[in-house]
Amino acid sequence: MGLFSRQKNQERDEATIDNTIDNTEVDARELEIDSWRKAGPFDISEYSAVEDLIDAGALRIPAVSGATIQFTTDAAQETVLGVVYVKDDSVLQLQVFAAPKSSGLWDEIRLDMRTSIANQGGSSTEIDSPLGKGLLARMPLPQSKDFAPHRFLGVDGPRWFMRVTLYGRAGSDENAANDMLRILENVVVDRGSDPHPPRELLPLSIPHTARRSE
Considering the chain, what percentage of its residues have pLDDT values greater than 90? Predict the structure, then answer.
């Protein structure tokens, strides 16, 4: 199909790419990586093949066989809030923020998130992951007594911070979570040179080739 489509729910609109076209797929083994970083996500200064990735503004992202990519926007559809991969009942959400030069953000954000999750009626525990320390959380579902498992991970980069959220099957299944995290092997952050205060969301955009249908 290869189409972007707009999906709506109560609080977000999403533009979706169906990544089933052979000539848009990117094999990680075919990409040349010049980097001190052993695994993605990478800074644009570390990655030499960004032209093979989808340009989504502050993020350059790979097409993934069998997955769709959704761009989550605010209610007014004016700001792209994140990139969402959906594959085999698992969901991976990526958001990227400005960070200070001198230190990372994930340690303090992780503490803030534990407080926020508890205030919402959920619970969380600290876990180890391929990206380092993270949170395994039980998030309350709206208008329900049920909870949904989520994994929250973070990556501190040069002047940027990426928050990674896994839910659906990947929220409770570690193997499914690790499979989705492999997508990050070819995700690149383009921080840009514009000034941004720490924790400000870096600007994302839906690719210009998008075709939308209501």
Answer: 70
